[in-house]
Amino acid sequence: MYTRPRHEKTVSRRLSELNIKGYLPVTKTLRTWCDRKRFIEAPLFPSYVFVYLESMLHYNSGLDIEGVLHYVRFGKEVVRVSESIISNIQLIAEHGKDVEVSSEYFQPGQQLFIQRGPLTGLSCEIVRINGGQKILIRVNLLQRNLLLTMPAEDLLAISA
Fold first, then answer.
1. Distance from chain centroid for Cα 73
2. Do 92 and 129 belong to one domain?
3. Confidence label for 16 from pLDDT (cuts 50, 70 and 90)
4. CATH number at residue 110
5. Bridge partner list, 58
6. pLDDT tens across 99-130, in order?
7. How many domains does the chain divide into?
């Protein structure tokens, strides 16, 4: 579901009050103001909340929540995100360090396979940003890219 800017937490809380299953992936980020610095929990995908719709009643109730703009659609169909993608996002949000979301398009790089850690089994590709190496995990359905740092020993090159 697509929300108004900065309404993700309110929508997520209201969904749970209505007994509708929802998921809002968050990441801790350091925010700097002129007088202080503080870690805050920010949505991993701004303006998006994942919802498990069990019935048309849940569908209609979700639209009535203040801050909800609409369900994400592809043509006339509401977009369905597979359980495996949600599971991967949950793993990344819970165990990833320095997670960053980008809507930029990156040129394809070396294909790798994660062989250790909480993201074991995911394929990824290396991207160079500001001289450092970061792993790019694509979530094509959301038209966003997840960037995170990971030790090189946790990676295995995919043979051609």
1. 18
2. yes
3. very high
4. 2.30.30
5. none
6. 777 776 666 677 888 888 777 887 787 777 66
7. 2
* SS3 track for the chain: CEECCCCHHHHHHHHHHCCCEEECCEEEEEEECCCCEEEEEEECCCCECEEECCCHHHHHHHHCCCCEEECCEECCEECCCCHHHHHHHHHHHHHCCCCEEECCCCCCCCEEEECCCCCCCCEEEEEEECCEEEEEEEEHHHCEEEEECCCHHHEEECCC
Q: Is pLDDT of 141 > 60?
A: no
For 19-46, write each residue's pLDDT tens digit.
999 999 998 888 898 999 998 899 989 9
Q: Are residues 19 and 74 in the same domain?
A: yes
Q: By residue range, what is the domain housing residue 90?
A: 84-157
Residue type, 44: L
